[in-house]
User: Fold these one by one.
Assistant:
Number 1:
Amino acid sequence: MNAIEIEGLTKRYGALTAVNGLRLTVRQGELFALLGVNGAGKTTTIKMLSCLTRPDGGDALLLGKSITREPEEVKKLLAVSPQETAVAPKLTVRENLELMAGISGADKAETKRRIEALSGQLGLQEVLTRPAGKLSGGWQRRLSIAMALILEPKILFLDEPTLGLDVLARSALWEVIRSLKGNMTIILTTHYMEEAEELSDRIGVMGAGHLLQVGTAAELEAATGTDSLEKAFIALAKEAAK
Amino acid sequence: MKRALLLAKRNAKEILRDPLNLCFGLGFPLVLLGLLTAIQANVPKELFPLDQLTPGIAVFGLSFMSLFSATLISRDRSSALLLRLYTTPLRPLDYILGYALPMVPIALAQSAITLLFGVILGLPWTPRLLLCLLTTVPVGWIFIGTGLLCGSLLTDKQVGGICGALLTNLTGWFAGIWFDVELVGGFFKTVSNILPFYHGVELGRAAYAGTLSSALSHLWVVLAWALGLLSVAVWAFLHQMRKN
């Protein structure tokens, strides 16, 4: 079974069609990057797939569960790390993680086990007792991802996970994301070409609500006759804007 | 219900760990009560009798509940924490309870401390003081509903203006805490009678005085406002939830 099967997914806001007849398949364990300029439809796609927004047309199956007919079941399979840090600032790192684990239905022993495992994996031990609001941007992003991971999702949506981070913090977060590869299906949206190239198995380029091209970085370059992902992206985005 | 309680626990921690909340929510009403009592001690005319002032200040203190609750919700919206929670198995009722429930013990504790401080300042202790404390529960729901409503519709900056400045001023002016609304009369009295704050204060005063019929006449108005505001607040919260 594929992790995600999208069939004709469409979302309209008044006269604007934000996502238009999207078709895509993502395999289990794959890290799939969605690239696109602002307004291309990436965030709307993620919102529909994570049951935050109801599509106006089409459907998507997440591990066989329909986002339109079984949203409650779909929510049990996924977790989202939003573009914003989305942490509870006055709670400590541990309390933030306990909150999310509790909401997912984990009991005390299970919550403790998950926090210990995640702290080791993401290097959170040194900040567990610190208030989340006092952490640096890089640590807050790391916590944000940990708050998604503690739900033990089968499918993880990472929306611009390194936006606004410095080079070192970004590099550290890339390591975290690399360590997750293969354990779950990850959908990553990003503006950074090197991030998509470095981390993803396949890349989808969106423009004007359409999925313009899907493939590995090399396949996208070959399809556009360019010698870098950035040039391939620009060529595709310009074509979509015509 | 377990999930709602988890969210409620988190929300209580967020509010109680903010020193500004403690300063304004608890400290300010106590300072006001102490200050007005000190003024009273130095003037021959009875301006601020404690049996009238203390229930009034308790209601005034409750107006800060709206600010706490609305600020928390609007910040959770802007930081996308609510967006994150919307993708979890939490149900709409869990959010409503999660944001409203923690405000009840906080409001009750704040009112109890205010009334106790009144006793320390010289308000005669009677068991009816407990009845007076109980009347702050329905009044508290008015402010909790207002907080839920404003937090759902406004940004955190707008919340500061509406709940922090406008609502506390409306409560302060139209509740008849420090002057008799009847003496002002006219339009001012009409507005005071329409808004719930005056009835909230009179309800507390009547409960303390043991005048049941007067208390009941104000209780209905308070309950009607609380129910109305909570209904609109729930609608607004669910509306913004669907909009996301």
Note: Residues 159 and 181 of chain A are 16 Å apart (CA to CA).
Number 2:
Amino acid sequence: MAENNNNGNSNGLAVHVREVSKTFGAGETRIQALKGVDFDARKGEMLMVVGPSGCGKTTLLSVIAGTLQFDGGEIDVFGTPLHGLKQREITEFRKRTVGFIFQQFNLIPTISLLENVSVPLLINGVRRSVAEKKSRDLLEQLGLGGRENDLPLLLSGGQQQRVAIARALVHDPKLVICDEPTSALDKDTGAKIMESLRAVARHPERCVIVVTHDNRVFKYADRMTEMEDGRVHKVHETYGHYQQNEGT
Amino acid sequence: MYRLALKMLLGDRAKYIMLVGGLTFASLLMTQQCAVFFGLLSWTTSHMRNMRASIWVVDPKVEQINEIKPMRDTDVNRVRSVTGVEFAVPLYTGVIQARIADGSFKPVEMIGLDATTLVGRPPRILSGRLEDLRRPNTVMIDELAVQRLSLSKDHPLRIGDTFEINDREARVIGICRTDRHFFGYPYVYTSYDQALQFAPRTRKMLSIVLAEPAPGWTATQTARQIEKETQLKAYTEDEFEKSTIRWFFLNTGIPASFGTTILLGFIVGMAVSGQTFYSFVLENLKHLGALKAMGASNGLLARMLLLQAFTVGMIGYGLGVGLTVLFGLAVLKKGQPPFLMPYQLPLFTLVVILIICAFAALLGIRKIYKLEPAVVFRG
């Protein structure tokens, strides 16, 4: 896999997206979800991607994470150019570089919290005993010590999302991708989760990208990218800037 | 990851039980029905095992042991005169009515042995001396005949007791053990000359000539020589067995009916396990998609699915074959239905179950290979 020696762009960029396009379907059902998107995310920041439904937020997240192939343009993630990578190399990239937090948590219900958190390490070939020790420590840090052997369904939504955060971080990924992480949670729990994610982002070699509709959590963003109709519409350097522009 | 794959499988109790149940049923149906079929096939040649000889000379039109066309008495001497024949003896076999003390009639399979050599003797003598058959009006009967020809269970037929065959007294001089006759008749052994007295008189009475090859000759060489010189049909033991089984395959519905049941077991196993496993994969698609997004390769996920499929397959196979063995142990004591389980049969079922599991896993693997990891972002 091609990777720059400086482990990212010299200007501190974690993700660099240029002229990326993505189309679904063909003929009359053809939908262009991304129309030449330009987008940057910096190291050590939590960037939120916001916009109305169908504007291409999730598609953008998917192509940055390497879970969806794009049609044209260039994407560079921590020095790895995704354009031109083979499928096997993209899988390898996801395995080592990306941590995922999903809207519905996606924890496997029939295995324990400890085993759920260990999954990314096991996929990376780490020995089970080592993986479980690291997972146990992380669950402890997130306030779930002593519940390692519980099944996910015994936990509240907020606790499950904390397990999902532990799973996303256990293999020390540089890029953490969050898809609507608070939409299934109440206000207070959502706020706690966002605090945790912001703490995660405070790492010089990490970037957290959050796609969300939930305007209750916009204030936690370091920067905000607003999308509309498959394009980046505006980039707000602060939440205040976003508020001014939105007139709220 | 393989350990987690097994926990995912075992965690879904309903699907797990249904998968194991379906495969157990398929394995049981295929193994048990095959064993009964093989048992039935072995019954078709049991008549041969109850007489035993290297070469069987019969009328040219005879294709199987249970259907004998009588020959002339002089055919024995014609066979004896063939080069390569060490010795040849006459044998009578036919179904005759026996009358027991209460006046009821029971059909028996009578075997008339050459009195000098007693070739064609029963496989195992339990009591009495076979040589006593040389005395007049004597018979040796098998255990089934003891049951059938006795007046009651409290008074089983013993050595020295008598019954009637064709209005002639038959005195029991021994009890033997035989393989069960295909049509369920008990065996009554006597001497060839005595059998001709017991049996209703017909123009031809010789059923079979039993022969042995001379030193330096194989049974096959001698059989071909007999055919060449006498124009009779001569089978080696192996040839007669195969011809008998072939006859049953071509002239009866037994293979078709058992084949249908065995095929049904295969189809039910394939359908139930394939459908259940596929629905298990569909229900876990969200989680498998998440694993794929996290960097699990298609190969790793395929191996996990194969492990899950083969695990339920091996458990179902073990239970199915185990139940078949229990069935076999139960029926072998009673003697019916027929049951024969050669070691190749469980191996055959194992291969079929593995094919079913591979098919079930492939359905899931196909789905996994087509699955885009981005599906996990679609809620």
Note: The radius of gyration of chain A is 18 Å.
